Write the structure tokens for this entry.
Amino acid sequence: MNKAELIEVVTNKAKNCSKAETARMIDTFIDSIIAALKKGDKVAIAGFGTFSVKLRKARAGINPKTQVKIQIPSMKVPKFKAGKEFKTSVK
């Protein structure tokens, strides 16, 4: 499912919203999660999961094209941990 399909599904279930309103709500939801993660906060949605930021340590790597060893710097990466209800509903 892509974003357009998600908007369609949510619009059909909400019944009182237009596609444009639904798209704005989904964009706002995503933007809110991104803003919280940028500040270093966690976003926990009960029954669904938790979004957080993980610090990945610096490490050595190899450029696959040239086989030259390179140093990959440390970086922050987004992380998602599925909640128990979400995990069991997918099984």
Notes: The first strand starts at residue 43 and ends at 45. Residues 25 and 31 are 10 Å apart (CA to CA). The beta strands are 43-45, 49-56, 59-62, 69-72, 75-82.
